[in-house]
Amino acid sequence: MEHLLVLVRHGQSEWNLKNLFTGWKDPGLTEKGVAEARAAGGKLRDLKLAFDVAYTSDLSRAQNTLKLILEELGQEGLETIRDQALNERDYGDLTGMNKDEAREKFGEEQVHVWRRSFDVPPPGGESLKMTAERVLPYYRSEILPQVIAGKRVIVAAHGNSLRALVMELEGLSPDEILKRELATGAPIVYRLTDEGKVASVQDLAD
């Protein structure tokens, strides 16, 4: 029985382009983001992959990325489950702020700590640890059982919600996952064992 799980970060958003902290805000995809999503679908089509169920977040940039991928695969009607458990990390008071302006206001070192420490949240927001604490229970209870049952699953979400999943799947430490960059619109193809462990991984980033 095949145990297929594909993770893909949404294509470039309007706020990615402007270098803003986005979090739970809901900007759309740029033209480049749309192209990245279509290219992701093309890569999966070239691998002759198809899916039985899709998961995405409550935010339109992930939903639209998934929609474009499924169009490329000819799977527009695929069952799709949306849940805010898969939303991006909440950046709290930093949300909507330009990253360079944040460094000027709070200092380079403080912003670096907020962005790149595992368990220090920005004011009013979530750390990566807190993000993982909502993503991973959802994965274990909702997504993993589908994969184990033989369903081919695709998850379209965000840099940090997907980092939490990659950390779990690949058994990475907090330090290791913080160094892991996930490209926009680049699928990661996992094949799992009957127990849900990673048998192989293929990163389709260019």
UniProtKB/TrEMBL annotation:
<comment type="pathway">
    <text>Carbohydrate degradation; glycolysis; pyruvate from D-glyceraldehyde 3-phosphate: step 3/5.</text>
</comment>
<keyword id="KW-0312">Gluconeogenesis</keyword>
<feature type="active site" description="Proton donor/acceptor">
    <location>
        <position position="88"/>
    </location>
</feature>
<dbReference type="InterPro" id="IPR005952">
    <property type="entry name" value="Phosphogly_mut1"/>
</dbReference>
<comment type="subunit">
    <text>Homodimer.</text>
</comment>
<dbReference type="GO" id="GO:0004619">
    <property type="term" value="F:phosphoglycerate mutase activity"/>
</dbReference>
<protein>
    <recommendedName>
        <fullName>2,3-bisphosphoglycerate-dependent phosphoglycerate mutase</fullName>
        <ecNumber>5.4.2.11</ecNumber>
    </recommendedName>
</protein>
<feature type="binding site">
    <location>
        <begin position="115"/>
        <end position="116"/>
    </location>
    <ligand>
        <name>substrate</name>
    </ligand>
</feature>
<dbReference type="InterPro" id="IPR029033">
    <property type="entry name" value="His_PPase_superfam"/>
</dbReference>
<feature type="site" description="Transition state stabilizer">
    <location>
        <position position="158"/>
    </location>
</feature>
<dbReference type="InterPro" id="IPR013078">
    <property type="entry name" value="His_Pase_superF_clade-1"/>
</dbReference>
<keyword id="KW-0324">Glycolysis</keyword>
<feature type="active site" description="Tele-phosphohistidine intermediate">
    <location>
        <position position="10"/>
    </location>
</feature>
<feature type="binding site">
    <location>
        <position position="61"/>
    </location>
    <ligand>
        <name>substrate</name>
    </ligand>
</feature>
<feature type="binding site">
    <location>
        <begin position="159"/>
        <end position="160"/>
    </location>
    <ligand>
        <name>substrate</name>
    </ligand>
</feature>
<comment type="function">
    <text>Catalyzes the interconversion of 2-phosphoglycerate and 3-phosphoglycerate.</text>
</comment>
<feature type="binding site">
    <location>
        <begin position="88"/>
        <end position="91"/>
    </location>
    <ligand>
        <name>substrate</name>
    </ligand>
</feature>
<dbReference type="InterPro" id="IPR001345">
    <property type="entry name" value="PG/BPGM_mutase_AS"/>
</dbReference>
<comment type="similarity">
    <text>Belongs to the phosphoglycerate mutase family. BPG-dependent PGAM subfamily.</text>
</comment>
<feature type="binding site">
    <location>
        <begin position="22"/>
        <end position="23"/>
    </location>
    <ligand>
        <name>substrate</name>
    </ligand>
</feature>
<dbReference type="GO" id="GO:0006094">
    <property type="term" value="P:gluconeogenesis"/>
</dbReference>
<keyword id="KW-0413">Isomerase</keyword>
<feature type="binding site">
    <location>
        <begin position="9"/>
        <end position="16"/>
    </location>
    <ligand>
        <name>substrate</name>
    </ligand>
</feature>
<feature type="binding site">
    <location>
        <position position="99"/>
    </location>
    <ligand>
        <name>substrate</name>
    </ligand>
</feature>
<dbReference type="Pfam" id="PF00300">
    <property type="entry name" value="His_Phos_1"/>
</dbReference>
<dbReference type="GO" id="GO:0006096">
    <property type="term" value="P:glycolytic process"/>
</dbReference>
